[in-house]
Structure formats: structure tokens, C-alpha cells
Fold this protein.
Amino acid sequence: MKIIERTGKTPELVIEAALLELKVGRDEIETETLEAGSKGILGIGAKPARVRISIKIDPEKTAVDFIKEMALAMGIAINVKTSLDSKQLDVVVEGDDMGILIGKRGQTLDAMQYLVSLAVNKGHAPYITVVLDAENYRKRRKESLERLGISIARKVRSTKKAVTLEPMNTFERRIIHAVLQGEKGISTHSEGNEPYRNIVVSPKKYVAKTNK
């Protein structure tokens, strides 16, 4: 929540000026009169009014506006749908050319999700998790990674040799760790530094490290 303080002749005049300055509606701010101000006697001893103004952040509006600005810069026409609960904001983008927005292995989508999260949580408390999706990519990617994990587990059991997967983000690594958690004779751990952190799928005799 952005907070500013302004002064003027009266609290109401201060608020009206602030609304024009900030280009927001009255229902988008909260106000606290710190000093009511006084006219003094014949202008002597006059004191200005001082008001603290807090700009409310609407997570859904912030996310939609931010994504539309990015899509406009990319030359993509989109529609945005949102769903918000107390802890998570789900954002679904629809339109043509979604492949451009998703990017290779979802890298563009992940980058946009990160930026939207920064915008939504700027000055906002408590923290809201943002999940950005397009063309059901998140679900399809999850299912693809689960199939990959099972396939790699079979290979490791057959060859008795560890397999190092390509670098993945935290969300994707967690999917692999989760799907292989119950696989007999298999252990998983992550190695390397972000953004090039890999999962290693090993025969059980290997000691598993941090599953992140």
C-alpha cells in the first residue's frame, strides 16, 4: 500500500488535490487527518491541514493492467481472467499467439509470472502467490514432467546409473521430486545453482540431498 502525506487549507481540499494528482477514485484510497488545520486570527498563526493518504492496491486489477501492458509491448491481443483467494491469485491469459507468451518450456510465461508477482506484492501484505497460465500450459507441463520422471526412474533402475536432468525451475523440480518420492529403489536430489539447478535421479544407494 503506497502512503503519502499532503498539506493544504482543509483536509477535504487536500484529499481532492491528491485524487487529481494520483489519478484514482475516492474508493481507492484511505485517509487519516493528522492535522485539521486552522485559519488563525486575521491569518496570524494559521496552520495547514495535513492528511495521510494510503492508496489501496487491488491485486486483480494490478495483475490485469500489468499483463495487458506487457502483451501490448509484445504485439499480442489478449483477454485476462483472474481468481483471488486470501493467499493465491490465479491469472489465465487467453488469445492468439499464446506460444509467444508461453515461450520455450514456459520461460517467457515464468518470467511474466515473476514480474506480475512483484507488481501485485509491491507494498501489499500479506504476500499473495501469483500463478500465471495460458492454454492450460501449467497442467500440461506437470503431466509431461510426471511422465518424464517415471520414465527416468525406470531407466535408472535398469542401468543402476544416475541420470542428471536438464536445468529446471523450483516449481518443475518439485514435481519431479514428488512423483518419484514413492518409487522403490530411487532417490532424487538437486545440484547446482539457480537458474541452472538440476535434478539427479539415482539408485537408492546414493544419498539424497536437498529436495528443492
The two ends are 32 Å apart (CA to CA). The CA atoms of residues 79 and 188 lie 40 Å apart.
